[in-house]
Amino acid sequence: MSFLARTKILKSGEAQPVVCPVCEFVLRDIEDVTSVKKEQACSECTLNFKYLYIDKWESGWRPTVKDARTKMTYI
Fold first, then answer.
1. DSSP letters along 28-69, please?
2. Residues near 33 by Cβ (< 8 Å), separated by ≥ 6?
3. Is 11 helix (H, G, I), strand (E, B) or coil?
């Protein structure tokens, strides 16, 4: 038995990241994708770091991957 796999491109354009550049975890949902586009971090990292350390964040500071992962909320 064989089958033919088909792929359909819904929208072409530049590639989107699938991992957060701060914590390096895979993006969970559309909220994370939107957050990475806008804030350069997933929604969890944005809440945990950008809004708490806004001055440092805007000057280019980012936590280490280890520090970011220790603050993640695990369900």
1. -SHHHHHHHHHHSS-HHHIIIIITTSHHHHHTT----HHHHH
2. 16, 27
3. coil
Length of the chain: 75
8/58 Cα distance (integer angstroms)? 39
Which pLDDT value is given to residue 14?
A: 76
**Residue 16 scores a pLDDT above 70:** yes
Q: Locate the domains of the chain by residue range.
A: 30-70
**pTM reported for the whole predicted model:** 0.74
With residue 70 as reference, give the H or E element that holds it. helix 65-70
